[in-house]
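Pasting as-is:
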Amino acid sequence: MTLTLFLLALTVLWIIIGTTKFKLHPFFVLLYAAIGLGLLAQIPAESLIPLITKGFGKTSESIGLLIVFGTLIGLFLEQSGATKTIAHSILKSLSRLPLPYAISAIGYVVAIPVFCDSAFVILSALNKTLANESKTPRLALTIALSTGLFAPHVLVPPTPGPLAAAAQLELQNLGLLIVLGGLVALILVLVGGFYAQHLAKNVRVQDTHKTPLDKASSSAQENSASDAPQNSTKVLPGIYHALSPIVIPILLMALGSIMKYTAPNLGPINDIITLMCAPDAALFIGVLLAMNLGFDNQDNSSKYTLIQQGLKIAAPILLITAMGGALGGVIKELPLTEYLSGYSALEQFGLILPFGIAALLKTAQGSSTVAIITTASIIFPILGQLGLTSELDKVWAIIAIGTGSMTVSHANDSYFWIVSQMGEIDVKTAYRHHTLATLIQGFTGLVVVNLLFYLSKLWV
């Protein structure tokens, strides 16, 4: 038992050092971790590579298309201007709310199909304009956007982290994860909005700091914008069209989950609906809807170029996620369940253990996705000992891992630098507010998910 735990700790330590100290690509860090752990655990050499290949392939099979389709949806939403339509519509609909809450709501919706770092870049210009027009401290809106984007990124599929965790924990009901992950993410987004509103009331507009690099960058962007042709403005899609690639796949997956338990058998109609409501098919329908946003039917060359870009973006994400599955395959061969079967006290840790491991990994090496993948691999063999055996229990475990992976975003996290640079705030201020806000969100998430977990036990 001691040796097994030591090897797991050594593997986690290598992942931290490999990604932070040696700056290796996460794909190779996870590959070396899988090989090293297998050899140190005395898994026969002739079995180790097939085991890694099987874990890699199983994860790719489970979520490969989901990652590709989710990436394509996000890219088409960005390029068509649909994200701007969604943002402006939310601002108009929530005009009675304080501006930081409205910005947080924008982040919540946009982050589901678009990765949080890309979405922040896309929306940072809108943030700046709103701050100037409303005389609201830009720092407050920056934190509102960063926290609004972060929570859905780690909790709501089709982003890679939650998808990978679902695959690792062999979750069958992805729709349930979307609904409950979305609920917890909404709560955490409101927490971020509350913190940002506090800043808006207590920070003067002129207190937002610009570094010389930021000023030069802003000046260059303004000059570039002024030199750009004025007739190149793109007509933005309507709000219903803009939302359709997000909303329709979610509704289809939710319908598929409901039909498993409530729908009568309608023969071939059932087969058609079941096919359309499968997560892969639902997201593919989202891709088809997204491809028609802001593009002429004859504009196939532009669509082809965007698809190529999307595949290039999705490829490394898929490779890293699948290699996390390979590491998970090796970890599953360790006799953790056998060793821990006699430890009845382990159940007392419940969701705190997956949260804690993910938080440790996130804080140490920076990547939320790597933290989620690694934690899910470690947790899967001991789900029974933690008392997390049902589909609903697995969903709570994934949400606990996701909230842990928010805790905390600091200098070793690329998102931290995107927020600080695009938000034009210095590093000290980013630590003081962005990092603190993610810490508050993470521990609030731990409390919320534990509360919902125990309430669900009373209901079931």
